[in-house]
Write a structure and sequence with these properties.
The complex is a heterodimer of chains A (267) and B (263).
Chain A: H1 2-40, H2 50-61, H3 65-87, H4 96-134, H5 137-143, H6 148-187, H7 191-201, H8 204-230, H9 235-266
Helix pairs in contact in A: 1-6, 1-8, 2-6, 3-4, 3-6, 4-6, 4-7, 4-8, 4-9, 6-7, 6-8, 8-9
Chain B: E1 4-15, E2 18-29, E3 33-37, H1 44-51, E4 59-64, E5 67-68, H2 74-81, E6 84-87, H3 99-110, H4 115-128, H5 144-156, E7 162-166, H6 174-191, E8 194-198, H7 202-208, E9 211-216, E10 219-224, H8 226-231, H9 235-241, H10 252-260
Parallel strand pairs in B: 3-8, 3-9, 6-7, 7-8
Antiparallel strand pairs in B: 1-2, 1-4, 4-5, 9-10
Classes of the chains: A mainly alpha (267), B alpha/beta (263).
Amino acid sequence: MELNKLISFIEQTGRFTTKGVAEIGFGASLMWKSIYWIFMGKKREQTVRSSSVFAQMMEMGVCAVPIITVMNATIGIMMALQGIYSLKMFGAESQVVIGVAFSVVREFAPLITAILVAGRSGSALAAKLGTMTINQEIDALNVMGINPVRYLVAPSFIALLIMLPILTFWADVVGLLAAGLYICVELGFTMNVYVDQVFEVLSVDDLMHGLGKSVLFAVLIVLIGVVNGASVTGGAEGVGRMTTRSVVHGISAIVIADMIFVFMLTR
Amino acid sequence: MTTNAIEVKNLVTHYGETQVLNNVSLDIKTGEIMVIMGGSGSGKSTFLNHLLGLLYPTSGAISILGQDINDITPMEFQFLRRKIGVAFQGGALLSSLTVGENIMLPLKEHTKLDRMTIEIMARLKMEVVELSGFENLMPSELSGGMIKRAALARAIVMDPKILFCDEPSAGLDPVVASNIDDLILKLKEALGMTVVVVTHELESAFKIADRICVLDKGNVLFVGTVEEIKKSNNKRIQNLLNRRSEKEELDPDEYIKRLTASE
């Protein structure tokens, strides 16, 4: 009986692993196909439509601006609060600008923005593709000679690759501004002094560090959304399950990729 | 020019380990309405999916309009697909687009016609399926019969040479179902299409079919005209025609095995 349990455990582990590897392979092939259609679409007489790209940019990017503004402003203020509190111990409150500037631009703005977009758009993508799969809409596209990757995935890819860095840049500005407002009131700076200090502390490299990460996050959000959406089985319940999964996986992937990215670039 | 629109030779397919189609061969002539019938689990949906190139067979060949669909380049298949129209069972209209946009979609994607022409062509097809005036509704706002008719309109908007219909009248009230049958006949007469219909509705099959193919447990049980099928004295066909339920012969050992789920 013990042996049977062990065998079944090994079997489960094996199945789980092959499933995971298959999913990563599916994601990679989707990415390759998207790149193929973006560049070869014209030759295959199926161009990726700019109208669908703009529609996605609107949906994934512009419509996310309000929530991203609110969240990043809040995080900026929170950083200023915590920074002043902890630096007070050394009597070095005026150094708070350094901490806030670095942490917002290098870490919090890209991370919070990506997490919000994963929650909004990654899940929407999974739900949309999942519903289309169970309603045979994907089959219908195929038999009409319309490649689903070209029609559905590639536009989202281009849109998010453009919009997520822009949103992240906006998040940088909002986060720093909100932190600045609090710091000025609390420490009696003028806004000019604060802005000067921020520019003194930050280099273009810091900004690019954050924006570079957002490009990586954009790829992850789209791939995880699409892979989960396309793997839906079992009707409406399946769509719900995979949508949840896409958010959980998306956020986990973003956080882990973030850590690896920082590890590679800061050491 | 070949007289067969579709030729299937020795098609064998598996779903996982289970064999679904067992050496199916079938010729469908240009300009005829072929009805593929069979009970649940007979493999007729699988057969249709293979004809549409959505599944890849274990062995065998399918040739559509003279081209072997598992042996042509993606580009050639893409062009071939423009000559094929498909109306899916649930309609499969894209839920994010209006009915009109759905019907215009193939034209928009495959032709360089201007918007005005595309709209006119789409409206013409909507007239054919008696759906004019509904182009601005979303698919979710349509009734079951209207969805099927919209799906038909989208399937014929490129004037295909072959039209596939999956259960065109399933789940509809008798009047609407009969309308759809008339519509399919009209399409064949007026546009000279080859039509392949997959259905399990007897009445509808008898009304529209030039020939009927009966699939049973993955095998072709019968191919012939309506007259021939009515005369057939094959027991399983008679059961299908007379809606008799079948009792499988019971093997006591097998039965005990199934109940106890032992190997």
